[in-house]
């Protein structure tokens, strides 16, 4: 019988001393099989790969992600429960903050829900202005991601271009609403104020500026070799998987599904304007970014139609009840910049809602992370996470 050679057992400090001193002949040690263990890696809650306070627990086999678990709730404020103890008109300040990049769209959906339950009609002029401002807010949102996402991938220049136009649009909206981010401009029954003098002319001018800028973005961003190499065929999201997880907005449309409440269930004046819903063909990170650029083009087209068709008249209904009373239940679906925003509101005849449930786009989009990340490499993590386009406050509410 021949004895099978076995690897000598040493403590790590002993082993290093013997190697350094020449007391161990490495060549005589047989090469055995090395066993590996999965490594647990925490991304976040504060990490360059995440948009805000989000934590993702990864299980790795080498550089391959085998499991990904999002850990949410770091920014939970209890907006749904707080709304049940406030006048529905005061709740507006809670609604425009969960997605701070889409404030006007947030407050618009909430205001529509309250108006339906209270039976309040909104003048045509107010509806056209709401539609126009919602699209300007969509452009603002997309400019942020079109600039910040390439920055995360190593392309620094686009963010300077994107913020150039963002600043001009924010200045214009501030001249109308009085605020740069949390506008609180919608009111039950209409708007806080009418448009200031010169707003339409400035808006028309900015549409032209943005059309020229979009052509630059197509070359600077979509034609960028860094972005193409890091995003093409990375993080492919099949349409059936996107639907199963409730994805919406650019995340869903990039997978080839043109779901958009502005088309499916038109609200305000979306049923009276012409626009297209851009869809991707591959459902990868590149397509999700491409959809953002194309959506900006469509928003500018809608804004032009709102400017041309804006009628005279009151900006707020004159038949507001002295005491607000909301009764019954309603569900309002709107197309926020990041996807489907839903407000389910139940009223029992009081001024505050009896129950509120918010269906936010970011929450559903983030929920697909455990399904899309396994099998990908760690370096692709940033490319995939960034292309889902979420705001953490919109996840946690």
Q: What would the keywords be for this entry?
A:
alpha+beta, 13% strand, disordered N terminus, three-stranded antiparallel β-sheet, Cytochrome-c3 Hydrogenase, chain B, 397 residues
Instruction: Give the domain tally.
Output: 1
Question: What CATH architecture would you give?
Answer: Orthogonal Bundle
Enter the CATH topology name. Cytochrome-c3 Hydrogenase, chain B
| Beta strand % | 5-15%
Question: On the 0-100 scale, what is the average pLDDT?
Answer: 88
General form: globular
The number of strands is: 8
| H/E element sequence | HEEEHHHHHEEHHHHHHEEEHHHH
Which stretches are poorly predicted, pLDDT < 50 over at least 5 residues?
A: 1-29
Tally of contiguous helical segments: 16
Could you tell me the radius of gyration in angstroms? Answer: 26 Å
The first-level CATH class is given as Mainly Alpha
A few lines on this structure:
With 397 residues, the chain is an alpha+beta fold.
Provide an overview of this structure.
- By secondary structure, the protein is an alpha+beta fold.
- The protein has one domain: Cytochrome-c3 Hydrogenase, chain B.
- It has helices spanning 12-21, 79-83, 92-95, 103-118, 124-153, 157-177, 199-222, 225-231, 239-244, 250-253, 261-264, 285-309, 361-366, 369-372, 381-388, 392-396, and strands at residues 39-43, 55-61, 64-71, 186-187, 190-191, 326-336, 339-350, 355-359.
- The strands form 3 sheets. The chain has a 3-stranded antiparallel beta sheet. Strands 6-7-8 form a 3-stranded antiparallel beta sheet. Strands 4-5 form a two-stranded antiparallel ribbon.
- The chain is globular.
- The relative contact order is 0.18.
- Residues 1-29 have low confidence and may be disordered.
């Amino acid at each position: 019988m021949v004895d099978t050679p076995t690897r000598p057992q040493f403590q790590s400090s002993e082993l290093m001393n013997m190697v350094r001193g020449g007391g161990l002949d490495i060549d005589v040690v047989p090469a055995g099989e090395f066993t590996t263990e999965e490594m647990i890696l925490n991304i976040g809650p504060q990490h360059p790969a995440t948009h805000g306070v989000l934590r993702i627990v990864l299980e790795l086999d080498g550089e391959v992600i085998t499991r990904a678990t999002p850990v949410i709730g770091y920014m939970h404020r209890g907006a749904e429960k707080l709304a049940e103890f406030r006048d529905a008109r005061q709740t507006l300040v809670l609604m425009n903050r969960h997605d701070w990049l889409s404030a006007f769209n947030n407050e618009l959906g909430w205001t529509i829900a309250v108006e339906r339950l209270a039976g309040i009609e909104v003048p045509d002029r107010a509806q056209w202005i709401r539609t126009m401002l919602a699209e300007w807010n969509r452009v603002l949102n997309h400019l942020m991601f079109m600039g910040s996402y390439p920055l995360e991938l190593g392309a620094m220049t686009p963010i300077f271009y994107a913020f150039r136009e963002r600043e001009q649009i924010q200045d214009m909206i501030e001249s109308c609403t009085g605020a740069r981010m949390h506008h609180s401009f919608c009111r039950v029954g209409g708007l806080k104020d009418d448009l200031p003098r010169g707003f339409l002319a400035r808006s028309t001018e900015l549409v032209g500026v943005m059309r020229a800028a979009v052509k630059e973005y197509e070359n600077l961003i979509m034609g960028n070799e860094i972005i193409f190499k890091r995003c093409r065929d990375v993080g492919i999201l099949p349409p059936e998987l996107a639907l199963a997880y409730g994805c919406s907005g650019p995340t869903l449309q990039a997978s080839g599904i043109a779901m958009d409440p502005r088309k499916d269930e038109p609200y305000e004046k979306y049923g009276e304007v012409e626009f297209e819903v851009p869809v991707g063909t591959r459902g990868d990170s590149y397509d999700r970014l491409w959809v953002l650029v194309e959506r900006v083009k469509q928003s500018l087209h809608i804004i032009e139609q709102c400017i041309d068709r804006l009628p005279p008249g009151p900006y707020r209904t004159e038949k507001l009840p002295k005491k607000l009373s909301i009764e019954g239940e309603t569900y309002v679906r709107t197309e926020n910049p990041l996807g489907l925003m839903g407000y389910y509101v139940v009223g029992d005849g009081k001024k505050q809602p009896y129950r509120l449930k918010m269906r936010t786009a970011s929450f559903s989009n983030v929920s697909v992370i455990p399904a899309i990340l396994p099998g990908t490499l760690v370096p692709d993590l940033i490319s995939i996470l960034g292309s889902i386009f979420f705001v953490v406050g919109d996840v946690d509410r």
